[in-house]
Amino acid sequence: MWNPRNAVLLSVLLALSASAFVEELDDTFMETRADDDIWLIKFYAPWCSFCKQLDPVWHQIGSELKSLGSPVNVGKSDATASTGLAKEFKVRGYPAILMLKKGVKYNYSGPRTRDGILDFANRVGGPLVRSLSSVSLFQHAMDRHDVMFVYVGATSHLKGNYTSAAEELIVHTYFFSSTKDVLPKVVSLPSLPAVVVFKDGTYFTFNEELDGDLKSWINRERFPNFLMIDSFTLYAMGESDKLVLLALVEEKNLCEESVRYKGLVEKVSADYREFYSREVGVPSFIVVDLSSDGYFLPPAAVKTERHLLDFLNGVLDGSIQFQGGNSIYQRVRRFIYEIKVSLTSIISQAPLFGCFLVSFLLAIIAVVFYVCFKNRPTLADDDDNDSGGLLVSPLQRQTKLTDKKSD
After folding, report:
1. 73, 174, 247, 323: which has the fewest C-beta neighbours closer than 10 Å?
2. Residues 6+ apart with CB under 8 A from 133
């Protein structure tokens, strides 16, 4: 007969079985691992709340990869205890997720979700460039991936550059190779070999004369033209030196104005992609320069397609005012703003404690100013120093000042 006690026992057994697929690693790991082993590792700290939230997800990932027969081993390491291993992998924050494959370390910077981490493990743990040998395999890959890069043709210098780019960018996207007869009938290539990106229901071919370096082109094109963005994607775009255009709308129950904004952005991103793709990767109503933490705002309401195009052209030609940035002035403003927001939140939730905190900060500032003012040298001090500490009469002081002026 089933009872709550049996339920508790079953949950404990499931937890133990899941933990069996995640190995605890220490400083001896680099010496004991095999050269061909592939490891997905999470570095954590016992006091880190985000690490604790990720822990059950991590055990699910270990169990699922094992059940799928993946060659990826899953481990975790307490970075505060195994400091040597954490230093080896240059761990700076927690939780840190990375993969070790044939001596190469790949950092994961995506969302801390089961699907995101599993996709990273399958992508990096598998072949660097995956072969699509049939029409059905090609269609299957198209159905699974919003963005995919495909090399078409025989061995060439271009293929070497493509493989080199894949070694670095495999953490972000998938790389495939195929022959021309495997591609959909609608795909027309001017010449072979070629590198093609499939996204947004269409395709674009790499042109060295127009697009420059292949790796830089792939890094720009690995994002859809129009998508729902999150913080991880936003900063990934910043790392690719993109100016990011954002439409800020409600998450649910979009009003008529929000729907119109989304429609404008989506239309411009599709119809004018060739013109803006090299400068503005994802269109929207705020253009963000993540390399300098700066941004551009439209000077007037954007109501038509022409208005949005004028805004983008103004960003490119410099006629739209650049705001924000990393100057000392802006950093001081941000610091003051953050203090103001924090104090306002504290005062609203705990008025007595907030008032005490404000008074304490003001008292510290007053003491600092008092000490600085008190230690400030006066004219009398300077004169005393000039006279060797002897008392000087007003007449003598006046004479001395006159002598100084004549000098």
Report:
1. 323
2. 178, 182
What the block records as the tokens of 104 is: 């190469």
Catalytic residues: 48, 51
323 touches 315 (CB < 8 A): no
In the chain, pLDDT over 90 holds for what percent of residues? 34
Distance CA 91, CA 96 (A): 7
Which of 255, 249, 247, 345 shows the shortest CA–CA distance to 288? Answer: 247
- 223 token code pair: 């994002």
Indicate the burial class of 287 (C-beta count within 10 angstroms; 0-12, 13-18, 19 or more). buried
**Bridge partner residues of 78 (DSSP):** 44
Six-digit token string for 135 = 């029409």
pLDDT by residue (tens digit) across 255-274? 777 777 777 766 776 665 55
- Angle of helix 114-125 versus helix 49-67 axis, rounded to 10: 50
For strands 323-324 and 243-246, give the pairing: unpaired
Residue 43 in contact with residue 87, Cβ under 8 Å?
A: no
Instruction: Specify the pTM.
Output: 0.58
End-to-end CA distance of the chain: 108
Q: Could you tell me whether strands 96-101 and 38-44 are parallel, antiparallel, or unpaired per DSSP bridges?
A: antiparallel
H or E segment and range at residue 68: none
Residue with tokens 């600085």: 372
